[in-house]
Design brief:
The protein is of the alpha+beta class. It is 62% helix and 10% strand. Strands 1-3-5-8-6 form a 5-stranded mixed β-barrel. 44% of the residues are buried.
């Protein structure tokens, strides 16, 4: 009987799921034990060969699960140890005052007069260092993503996904290479166009919607967005990009499936190009593009398969995401709500009835709020009691708002000044509505409520959510292979 179980057929997608889970486990183990047992190229070759056995097997069986797990563990340990080796040289400089060279990897943030800088391609003297460094400086220069800078200050240990940090650094030089970041140049031109067509605060909000450039949004509005659980609107990441891609696909599908794929993929590519392939946008692009591809070719992978493969891909690119990036966890937890809990809630509420975009956004919002609340309460010790109503008031208009902002920005780039006012009027109205809802909710009693949730409380909360999902699945008999992140369910 046991031999029969091992010979049972198993789809290769589930083997990739086991491989992905094992790869992330290997990355975690590499950081836990910190022993270079899998250094060199041999483990990478061995892991690659084991993976090849898994994916090239013509009739995969359950027995291959063990080979998939072995391949994932070996490659995860190898990648994690190599990532640790890349950043080990920082230890020599910790506590010393150094001259640090690096390239600004993302848009700067300004807080209390200090510019927050995320640096890549770091070098101290002639020593090139891996990973990224967080630094702050009181420079008055207008620094941008892609600028090459030199800082002087005391190097300190890193935090989260950063290999090291440097606070209150002195900026000694800054160079903007010509053509160094083409996507930033495109985005800056779009930003200028949007600012020509709508008022300043609404323009900053629209830029945040589409490009994640939240440093242009006034500090007071950022604080209010945080209080009411709407800060995700101005961070280039999952939900806002996904619903816009989904809307474009649905509109164009009335003409042809190929056009829907091209238009939705083009929108995703354009948003990624404008926002830059920064971490949140990169995760969104990977998950959404996989969903688009599987939808177009008529494949409906189980959500666990999709999320596992996407998470493992991003973890392999940078293991530091797994070691300490709350945003990485938030992205995939939120997508879990979108493609696991959301479809089941829709089926529970409306059965087989066809649902429109508004119903889908409302239920997806509820699902994402449910699954992300414990993590937010644990990571930020703050829980917005108005998060759900604020999102329900704003998100149904999100696709129209983003489309209107896109049209307004393009009009500002290419149309004469006389025509920009009319092109920007819809975006102004919709963005102003978001601002007013935010200000109103942020001023309501208890908007700044603080939640104290430790690790045990978070684990118990997610255990309860998983139990609810399991019971709901059994009650409605939902089949996860009937839907997609970007496509309608089959009926």
């Amino acid at each position: 009987m046991l031999l029969g179980i091992w010979r049972r057929p198993l789809h290769v997608s589930w083997l990739l799921t086991w491989f992905s889970a094992a790869l992330m486990a290997g990355i975690i183990l590499a950081a836990t034990f910190r022993k270079p047992l899998f250094a060199g190229t041999q483990p990478a070759i061995a892991g690659g060969l084991l993976l090849a056995v898994v994916v090239m097997k013509r009739s995969p069986t359950v027995a291959l699960v063990f080979i998939a797990i072995a391949a994932g563990l070996v490659l995860g340990l190898w990648r994690g140890e190599n990532r640790l080796a890349e950043t080990s040289n920082y230890r020599v400089f910790i506590g010393q005052t150094v001259q640090l060279h690096g390239t600004i990897a993302d848009d700067i943030t300004v807080k209390s007069g200090q510019a927050g800088l995320r640096l890549r391609d770091v070098r101290i003297g002639q020593t090139r260092l891996g990973g990224q460094v967080w630094a702050s400086s009181s420079t008055g220069l207008s620094l941008k993503r892609g600028d090459q800078i030199e800082l002087s200050g005391e190097l300190r240990p890193g935090f989260g996904s950063y290999a090291a940090s440097m606070s209150f650094a002195k900026l000694t030089s800054a160079i903007r290479p010509p053509g160094g970041d083409p996507s930033r140049s495109v985005r800056d031109a779009f930003d200028t166009g949007l600012e020509r067509t709508v008022p300043q605060q609404e323009a900053a909000l629209g830029i945040g919607y589409l490009t994640g450039q939240h440093n242009l949004v006034p500090d007071i509005l950022i604080k209010q967005l945080q209080l009411v659980g709407l800060i995700h609107l101005v961070i280039a990441g999952g939900y806002n990009v996904t619903i816009l891609v989904r809307l474009i696909r649905r509109l164009c599908l009335r003409i042809s499936k190929r056009l829907a794929m091209l238009a939705a993929g083009g929108m995703l590519f354009g948003l990624t190009l404008v926002a830059g392939f920064v971490a949140p946008m990169a995760r969104t692009a990977i998950v959404t593009s996989l969903s688009l591809a599987t939808w177009y070719y008529g494949r409906w992978p189980h959500p666990v398969v999709l999320l596992s493969v996407a998470a493992a891909t991003t973890a392999f690119i940078d293991p530091a995401f797994v070691w300490g990036d709350v945003g990485w966890y938030m992205t995939f937890v939120a997508y879990g709500g979108l493609i696991v809990l959301g479809p089941m809630l829709k089926r529970w509420f409306w059965g087989e009835e066809h649902h429109g975009e508004i119903k889908q956004i409302i239920v997806d919002t509820l699902a994402v709020q449910i699954v992300t609340t414990p993590l937010m309460a644990f990571a930020f010790q703050q829980y917005s009691i108005y998060g759900l109503p604020a999102n329900l008031l704003v998100l149904p208009f999100m696709p129209l708002t983003m489309l209107a902002a896109t049209v307004a920005g393009a009009a500002g780039m290419f149309l004469p000044a006389a025509a920009t006012h009319w092109a920007g009027w819809p975006a102004s109205v919709l963005l102003s509505y978001t601002s007013k809802v935010t200000v109103w909710m942020a001023g309501a009693p208890g908007a700044g409520a603080v939640a104290r949730l430790d690790a045990r409380g978070m684990v118990l909360a997610y255990a309860a959510i998983l139990l609810f999902i399991w019971r709901l699945k059994r009650k409605i008999g939902y089949d996860f292979r009937t839907g997609s992140l970007v496509g309608e369910e089959y009926h």
